[in-house]
Amino acid sequence: MDRISIIQPDDWHLHLRTGSVLNAVLAHSAAQFGRAIVMPNLRPPVTTVAQAQQYRAEILNALPVDATFQPLMTLYLTGATSAEEIAAVAAAEFVHGFKLYPAGATTNSEHGVADIHKVYPLFAQMEKLGVPLLLHGEVTDSDYDIFDREKIFIDTHLTAITREFPALKIVLEHLTTQQAVEFVSAANINVAATITPQHLKFNRNAMLAGGIRPHFYCLPILKRETHRLALVAAATSGNAKFFLGTDSAPHLTGLKEAACGCAGCYNAPVALALYAEVFDQAGALDKLEGFASFYGADFYGLPRNTQRITLQKQPWRVPDAYPLGADTITPLLAGESLSWQLVA
Ligand SMILES: NC(=O)N[C@@H](CC(=O)O)C(=O)O
Ligand SMILES: [Zn+2]
Ligand SMILES: [Zn+2]
Question: Is 13 within any annotated ligand binding site?
Fold first, then answer.
């Protein structure tokens, strides 16, 4: 099969940033996806429905005129999040959940939650009101090896959270390990997960063997091949708990190609092409539509899209970089050739 037509996909985990970066990146997502869950880790973070409304307006304003893309907003959960704000989220139709960043876990997570037990009362209210909890699932203590941080988060926090709040809708974002796949598969139906194209396509060798490649550096960090295989098996299984979330996370090229480079892969320009390549290589193109276009909408209680898109096996070359002022943004796989592309 070298051509498939599917219902238009959505991106259930996306960083769009603001200002000039937003303007430079938005069209790439809007060209492929009908909707996207937009992450709130701005500086300062999006912590109120009023801020989310403003941010949403900025995104809509930055869209190409003919675009139908819909940003689905989220709020950043902090130790200071109030019961009133959770009620406001439940009432606001354009806000779809709270994102919890353990403090210090990733880019712009300084305002995140330092002690997860302290926000249990907030989880209880979210559970009651049906507000989803989106998780960056990694422990942060410097004693923990960076390759183990997702597994330890599951063992020390997520297991307890799902036991205490069985009706809380939880999305464990950007899965990277076999243990995470096993946990989500075994959990109740209120627990789901997103998977990025880079974690499906690459193991840590892509980042570290034969030279250090900062554009493959994101968090949670790429893992060894056994984990990648578990992720591919989950994504292509047809299990509705696993769905598409690119975690496209643009940073200026100068901030990634640095002595201390930022975490985040700018994968929006290559996202659907990479997912198609992975599903094709796994002999599972027939499972792409569920993963990319159905299961996320179903989990969030939103209607499925009705428009269709077509992907074709037809090689193309990824641009070296996209200009942004005096710097650029370098996409994942810059200058490389990809075998699939969106044609309509
Ligand atoms: N994934 C990343 O490495 N970075 C993301 C934050 C996140 O999703 O953890 C970013 O905002 O840059
Ligand atoms: Zn994250
Ligand atoms: Zn992210």
Answer: yes
